[in-house]
Amino acid sequence: MNAKLPVRVRFAPSPTGFFHIGGARTALFNWLYARHCGGKFILRIEDTDRQRDTEEALRSLIDGMRWLGLEWDEGPGAGGPHGPYFQSERGEIYREYVGQLRDTGRAYDRDGAVWFRVSGQPALIRDRIRGDVRRLEEKDFVIVRSDGSPVFHLVNVIDDIAMDISHVIRGEDHLSNSSKHVELFQAFGREPPTFAHIPLILKTVGSGKMSKRDSGASIEDYRRRHYIPAAVRNYLCLLGWSPKDDREILPIEEIIRLFDIDGINGNNARFDEKKLAFMDGEYVRALPPEELLVRARPILQSAGLLSAGESSPQSEGDGCDGYLGAVLRICQEKLRGLEDLPGFCGYFFSRDFPRDPKGLEKISKTGDPAARIREFLEAIRGDCPFEEKSLEGMVRRLADKSGLKTGDYIHAVRHAVSGQMVGPGFYGLLMVLGREEVQARLENFLHTQGLLQD
Ligand code: GLU
Predict the structure, then answer these.
(1) What are the residue boundaries of the structural domains of the chain, listed by start?
(2) Which class is domain 359-448?
(3) I need a labelling partner for 1 at 20 to 30 A (CA). Which of 55, 70, 218, 261 fits?
């Protein structure tokens, strides 16, 4: 019925806790719909609960929205013709609207509170996901408390009217409020907006609704753990919507093109933290080198592996051609997430790296690893060019001669220079460390081994 109106949607959070998956998904669906239709996306802060609203919650919300790239056309920081966008600053407007209800006999005072007089007719809620729902609101309800504070239902509807909201896309938990809201719209002489109540998000296991307390619920956590915001956003899109062709990883421009309210699934969506982590890994492995570099540097810096402004102990430039760029180039395809970065490649930046506690045992299974390391060391001290193909040939010759496998050499040397049994491609790793560093680390290892043996 509102098909001809310009599309104006809003996200209307109450800043009472941290920004969570459910809220972010609601914000995202509104944003997608606005962008799909070329409409406007409004951020309205429903801060009418002085007891529970906090400055911190507001920060978490604003930062989280920005981090996810859900920029708003009107709202805090963006301004707009329908402000203020904080309900706590709109008292004047609410008083005027309540005045209208009094004038038409739809509001009256009782016990110090202002009450709304219901119509006695069932309210028709036109919902694009649930279909038409009719519900009778049987009893009058309070719209302004005796302390003068307006009730959620009242201000929510007034603002949707005052801000010319065309579609209300929100969580299904609000479906039961909608009959009150439709009554209020009609009492103000307005056509209610089109509703779209999006299904709940269930916990990973069981039939319970995902709550703010569940693991993986906080958007801020993903940010702290260096998730790629586009990956989190992509995952959130799939919580109740899909492009219907089995694809899961899609550029946001394409999601915007395909997204529509009719495509929202009526069934509850299930949150899957592992899938989100996997999707993030896919994004990490696909990052352009420059972007990976920009994201990796501060992570390695706060892990104490890189100092500010310096690429490495062997520093040679800062860009993708520098040492850090080379490390990332060989590690990227193996990363599961940026959070793993310090653990995965810390040894490139320090000789003081942890050792896989099972490593020595593993490399000792086919005999004394020190002997193999010594052979390898001899070869690179000699005239073997320090270059992937030559090193590979050299290791093959050592294996042929001793009757061992090339892997026996590779594992021993890898463990000696990195402490690890897995990691980036072996020859790439050697090249990035460089001949001198590899030599020094192997000698170091033998030295320690010698001490251990005697
Ligand atoms: N402030 C309400 C909430 O956070 C908004 C409800 C709505 O979107 O209409 O749930």
Answers:
(1) 287-348, 359-448
(2) mainly alpha
(3) 70
